[in-house]
Amino acid sequence: MATEVYLVRHGETMFNQLNKVQGWADSPLTVKGINDLKVTAANLSQVHFDKMYSSDLKRAIDTVHLIADTNEVSEIGKIKKLPAFREVFFGTFEGDDIDETWRKVAKAGGMKPTSDVVKIIQTLGIHDFREATKKADPRHLAEDAEALDDRMDQAISQLAQETKGLGRVLVVSHGDFIKTLGIKYWDQASGDHDIPFPDNGSVTRGIIDDNGKFRIINYGVKNTDIPNL
Length: 229
Description:
Blueprint: E1 3-9, H1 14-17, H2 31-44, E2 51-54, H3 58-70, E3 80-81, H4 98-108, H5 117-124, H6 126-136, H7 145-162, E4 168-173, H8 175-185, E5 203-208, E6 214-221
Parallel strand pairs: 1-4, 2-3, 2-4
Antiparallel strand pairs: 1-5, 5-6
Helix pairs in contact: 2-3, 4-6, 5-6
Protein name: Histidine phosphatase family protein
GO biological process, one term: negative regulation of glycolytic process
Organism: Lactobacillus gasseri
């Protein structure tokens, strides 16, 4: 039996609002973040889920509980935390100014310093962007491409085991992690090339087939467009 997976990006946080790097570091949802999530939750309120999950970071946990509390057709029970669905880890850059961080990453990648992360990724490719991030990190703790790919495989494998025999589940995760899943598992993505960053509260829909293989069908659907899924 195939399992339908709704991957939701958490709501806007204080670090999002302050333009700070936010991977494994955490910050609370903003008022805007909560209000945007109410739209997401309302548009998912009549969608039946057999189970709901989240990463183990508080912004994801708060998001999944808001969605679960609004859903009118599901009896979720205990919501399990899946640490493998955490955001990408940015090492020493956690909590730093985003623009300054990307300038350092661009320089480490052999580019003229720029805060335009889209340009950096388009120039280097996502693999070398991850390598440049780790190189630029003074302690070299940031996740590189291989470590992140291994964690994505672990996340999907664990989810396939967790959801065997279930029809539809929801997982709250994070923007860069969902985007990197999209690059790997979305048919419309092309290899190492960049794809748009998913909005806070957006839904990415995928399928885990009977063999445990995962593919993404709809990527980064805005919260207002959820009824069209």
